[in-house]
């Protein structure tokens, strides 16, 4: 029996070593038409050629996400995105050597937002984490900005930290380096903290951060924000710390570890009747996007997302710190899933995202 363990993928809005903020992938029948959700589609290129290893991070007033890395054709597809107006940026999440570009778009229910092809600049990137001084935890939805070390002019977009206080920014100049300012305005929790600089009290005294081109970004030391009242900060109690898989592609058993899962599985409903599904039909889909897994293979499928998911999940055990499940019977059916001609198996090299009650974890099946 082969053992797979996830290979960590550093993504914007993610604790380095555990990813968050990613949701959705298209399956048949599609689920992007579910009430309140839409799909985002984009292509990225570098010097006129498609480029892989680029992620799209975006945030609205109600939600945020980071996509899986672009594939070999430069394609990014993000389904199950909460409707609304988003601002975000493309960035180098896979060591592609590209820089960041800001983007704005709107997601409508049941529709696909086509962002077209975005040409990316070369450049370097940086990442780090902001912490709340009172709570001793990551500070979410707080802004950061990289600026020219001499003029103080912005050299990238304002970026909001994710639910764990993490941030990342690409497309930065590799010749002059940058200086970084926090709580610059524009993110929902900025009013809770006072403005400060990385390594100093103003532009002149702030630490000059060198930027190295290509893989894999400059790591900044964790910064503790001062002046916090902590009254406006909302920090999720749910976190995924690891995902491991036992067994081969045809019958994998998946273990999810973390905190705050609760003592019982979220509300679910039986999987719908799908082509090739045995009469016994095992598996359930979970309502309100509370528990599901995406596989970003060539087929882009998911399991456990209601409504419309054929695969479903079969819970083996569930506790506040560990969830163990298998895929539903359609995954193992002769006419579908991992056994059928669709090729929808959790295969080596696939990027996957696990979601539990709003917490997200992205990895690669090695």
Explain how this protein is built.
There is one protein chain. Mean pLDDT is 74; it is low at 1-34. A hairpin with an 8-residue loop joins strand 8 (84-92) and strand 9. The radius of gyration is 21 Å and the shape is globular. The longest helix is centred in the last third of the chain and has 4 residues, at 329-332. 49% of the residues are buried. The chain has one helix at residues 329-332, and strands at residues 3-5, 7-8, 37-46, 49-50, 54-59, 64-66, 75-82, 84-92, 101-107, 112-119, 124-132, 143-147, 159-160, 166-172, 179-182, 196-197, 218-219, 223-225, 239-246, 253-259, 268-270, 284-286, 291-296, 301-303, 313-318, 322-327, 351-356, 359-364. The protein has 1 helix and 28 strands. It starts with a strand and ends with a strand.
Radius of gyration: 21 Å
Q: What about the largest sheet?
A: 5 strands, antiparallel
Compressed to H and E, one letter per element, the order equals EEEEEEEEEEEEEEEEEEEEEEEEEEHEE
- Helical amount: under 10%
Strand content is 35-45%
Low-confidence stretches: 1-34
N-to-C CA distance: 15 Å
Q: What number is the mean pLDDT?
A: 74
- What structural class do you assign from the helix and strand content? mainly beta
The helix count comes to 1
Strand order of the largest sheet: 1-19-20-26-25
General form: globular
According to DSSP, the number of beta strands is 28
């Amino acid at each position: 029996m082969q053992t797979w363990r996830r290979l960590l993928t550093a993504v914007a809005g993610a604790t380095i070593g555990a990813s968050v903020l990613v949701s959705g992938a298209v399956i048949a029948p599609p689920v992007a038409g579910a009430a309140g959700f839409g799909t985002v589609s984009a292509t990225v290129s570098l010097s006129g050629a498609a480029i892989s290893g680029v992620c799209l991070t975006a945030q609205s007033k109600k939600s945020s996400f980071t996509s899986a890395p672009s594939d070999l054709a430069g394609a990014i597809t993000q389904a199950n995105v909460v409707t609304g107006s988003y601002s975000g940026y493309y960035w180098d999440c896979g060591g592609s050597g590209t820089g960041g570009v800001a983007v704005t778009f709107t997601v409508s229910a049941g529709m696909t937002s086509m962002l077209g092809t975005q040409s990316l600049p070369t450049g370097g990137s940086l990442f780090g984490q902001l912490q709340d001084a009172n709570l001793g935890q990551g500070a979410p939805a707080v802004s950061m900005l990289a600026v020219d070390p001499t003029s103080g002019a912005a050299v990238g977009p304002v970026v909001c930290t994710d639910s764990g206080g993490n941030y990342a920014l690409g497309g930065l100049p590799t010749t002059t380096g940058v200086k970084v300012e926090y709580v610059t305005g524009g993110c929902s929790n900025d009013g809770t903290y006072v403005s400060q600089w990385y390594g100093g009290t103003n532009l002149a005294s702030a630490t000059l951060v060198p930027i190295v081109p290509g893989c894999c970004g400059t790591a900044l030391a964790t910064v503790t924000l001062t002046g916090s009242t902590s009254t406006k900060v909302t920090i999720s109690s749910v976190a995924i710390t690891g995902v491991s898989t036992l067994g081969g592609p045809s019958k994998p058993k998946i273990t999810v570890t973390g905190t705050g899962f609760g003592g019982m599985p979220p509300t679910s409903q039986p999987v719908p009747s799908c082509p090739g599904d045995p009469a016994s039909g095992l598996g359930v889909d979970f309502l309100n996007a509370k528990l599901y897994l995406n596989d970003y293979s060539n087929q882009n499928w998911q399991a456990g997302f209601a409504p419309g998911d054929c695969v479903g999940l079969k819970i083996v055990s569930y506790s506040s710190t560990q969830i163990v499940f298998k895929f539903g019977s359609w995954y193992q059916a002769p006419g579908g899933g991992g056994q059928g001609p669709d090729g929808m198996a959790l295969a080596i090299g696939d990027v996957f995202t696990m979601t539990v009650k709003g917490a997200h974890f992205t990895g690669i099946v090695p």
